[in-house]
Write a structure and sequence with these properties.
By secondary structure, the chain is α/β, with parallel strands linked by helices. Helix 1 (15-26) packs across helix 7, helix 3 runs parallel beside helix 4 and helix 4 (102-130) packs parallel to helix 5. The longest helix is centred in the middle third of the chain and has 29 residues, at 102-130. Strand 4 (82-87), helix 4 (102-130) and strand 5 form a beta-alpha-beta unit. The chain contains 8 helices and 7 strands, in the order E-H-E-H-E-H-E-H-E-H-E-H-H-E-H. It is globular, with a radius of gyration of 19 Å. The protein has a single domain (6-231), classed as Rossmann fold (3-Layer(aba) Sandwich). It binds NADPH dihydro-nicotinamide-adenine-dinucleotide phosphate (NDP) and 2-amino-3-ketobutyric acid. 2-amino-3-ketobutyric acid (AKB) binds at residues 92, 140, 142, 150, 184-185, 190, 194. This is NADP-dependent 3-hydroxy acid dehydrogenase YdfG. Residues 5-176 form the Ketoreductase domain.
């Protein structure tokens, strides 16, 4: 199913999502493209149909709106031809936590986490039942490091990474592949949308280079793909340190350093 199944891509109207759409169309996959900007989706779809002779459906949806999100969930649940979900739609915002308005914080969390997990939850049972398929969650290196200074955005991206790791443990024995992709700064509209001057940022990766690398990881069935990480042993060391910490947790009693007078 995954070789030529339909690919549903969220946030497909620009940037990383639009590039995934182009790459999967080039591979001969039919597509379902999701975003708010219907005109942009239609323009992209027309070009990809013409260039690659694939069938493309458009779902206009604001994934922070429960009704729109439910429609995409229903499509993922009911359309057994969809075998790959690219959970890509996301947004960032500028400023420190105390400068960010509560509603803006909630909107970023709703889009980057709630929509992501609801869509994964909508498709996962069907893929597990079929014994094949893939869920790709677009995280970020910002999710590895609070030091980048984007606490809420980074937390949502840490969520995407953790969720992918957990789902991989649950779903890979059932034949479902789960991938977390962690880009670093990539030249897309996300910066401008977040009120950050892209021209002030040095050394951004071009979006085609990013997505092509993510697809190398996808084809290798890698769980965590970090295209801008040059020494892969750094990730392996981090993961090994995490597992060593977990093996040192003794649930029944506190550690000696917490024993003392109450
Ligand atoms: N560019 C970068 O440096 C990095 C990006 N990422 C992640 O990559 C993903 C894609 O971002 P990128 O391509 O860079 O940015 P873009 O801003 O170019 O793309 C974001 C996409 O998400 C869609 N989107 C935004 N808000 C909503 C919404 N409420 N409902 C539905 N769709 C929405 C946009 O479409 P529309 O406006 O039409 O709805 C657009 O298609 C994000 O998850 C981002 O966090 C991760 C690391 C680095
Ligand atoms: C806005 C950002 O910080 C960027 N998208 C990233 O995740 O690196």
């Amino acid at each position: 199913m995954t070789t030529r199944s339909i690919v549903l891509i969220t946030g497909a109207s620009s940037g990383i999502g639009a590039t995934y759409a182009e790459r999967f169309a080039r591979r001969g996959h039919d597509l379902v493209l999701v975003a708010r900007d219907k005109a942009r989706l239609e323009t992209l779809a027309a070009r990809l149909r013409e260039e690659h002779r694939v069938a493309i459906d458009i779902l206009q949806a604001d994934l922070t709106q429960p009704k729109d999100l439910a429609a995409v969930e229903m499509r993922l649940r009911d359309d057994s031809r969809i075998g790959i979900l690219i959970n890509n739609a996301g947004a960032a915002h500028s400023g420190s936590f105390i400068e960010q308005a509560t509603d803006d914080v909630a909107r970023i969390v709703a889009l980057n986490t709630t929509a992501l997990v609801r869509l994964a939850n909508a498709i996962a049972p069907r893929l597990a039942q079929a014994g094949e398929g893939a869920i790709v969650n677009i995280s970020s290196v910002v999710g590895l490091a609070p030091e980048f200074g984007m606490s809420v955005y980074g937390a949502t991206k840490a969520f995407a990474l953790f969720l992918s790791q957990g789902l991989s443990l649950e779903l890979s024995p059932k034949g479902v592949y789960v991938q977390a992709v962690l880009p670093a700064g990539t030249r897309t509209e996300i910066w401008e949308r977040a009120g950050i001057d892209v021209n002030a940022l040095p050394d951004l990766m071009e979006v085609g280079e990013l997505v092509d690398a993510a697809l190398v990881g996808f084809d290798r069935r890698e769980l965590v793909t970090i295209p801008p990480l040059h020494d892969a042993t750094c990730w392996n060391a981090l993961d090994a340190a995490r597992l060593a910490l977990v093996s040192n947790i003794r649930q029944a009693h506190v550690a000696d350093r917490y024993r003392g007078a109450a």
